[in-house]
Amino acid sequence: MGLLDILLGRTKPVGADLDRLFALPSAAVTLEAAAGFTPTGQGAVCFATVEGAAFEQSHREVQALLDADTDRDGRPVELRQDDYGYSWLVSRRSPDQLSALVNDLHAVNSQLEVNGFGPQLLCSLAGFEDRSGRRLALVYLYKRGTFYPFAPLPDGTERRDNPLELQVRAALSGDLRLEPDLGRWFPVWGAPGL
Q1: Were both Cys, which of 7, 21, 77, 121 would link to 66 (CB 3.0–4.6 Å)?
Q2: Domain residues for 147?
């Protein structure tokens, strides 16, 4: 960062720290105690869709790496595309295997980053739900190195449960590095894994 950046008030962007994903299991304990949400066993990594042989090779490597895990109970990792044109690599585990799910998310992000696709990585999420069926995702913003909660209303509309998101933010402030700018709490409507 140079003198001109300092004078103009520019700051160096925070880089991704994929090891922050490993804080999710302890945050899940806090989330269950504070709001009654438990893991669904589903998670996903979102990235800008990439065409070409290099990406296909990288995708096959990630798929082989994750499918080699014998504890998956026949649940393959799948590549899906959403209505907005983004790709999602979705992992499913049993709800009591959040640590294994986090390992999957970390492995996908790391493999894509190592193969030169870091700029295409957007976010990762882990799904949660409460006894009444409300859904919640803890979303990790790759380029910011921060988390935020995303809670769609269960009525099927594209509206959010903002009070719940703020409650979760307050509950997890000591467990996760949360995104302070609410304008960056992007909705992930229809995200696989949620």
Answers
A1: 77
A2: 13-184
Q: What's the pLDDT band for 24 if we cut at 50, 70, 90?
A: very high
**Two tokens, residue 143:** 């380029």
Q: Which residues contact 151 (CB under 8 A, 6 or more apart)?
A: 134, 135, 136, 137, 160, 161, 162, 164, 165, 168
Name, in order, each residue with C-beta under 8 angstroms of 161's C-beta and a sequence gap of 6 or more.
Answer: 134, 151, 152, 153
Q: How far is it, in rounded angstroms, from Cα 88 to Cα 104?
A: 13
Indicate the Cα dihedral angle 183, 79, 106, 68, nearest 10°: 170
Tokens read off for 135: 């859904």
Pairing of strands 146-150, 38-48: unpaired
H-helix or E-strand spanning residue 164: helix 162-172
**pLDDT at residue 193, as a whole number:** 79
pTM of the model: 0.87
- Angle separating helix axes 24-35 and 98-112, nearest 10 degrees: 130
**Strand order in 135-141's β-sheet?**
78-81, 86-92, 38-48, 121-129, 135-141, 146-150
Domain count, the chain: 1
Token output for 103: 């390992």
Here the tokens at position 193 are 């894994």
Task: Note the pLDDT of residue 155.
Answer: 85
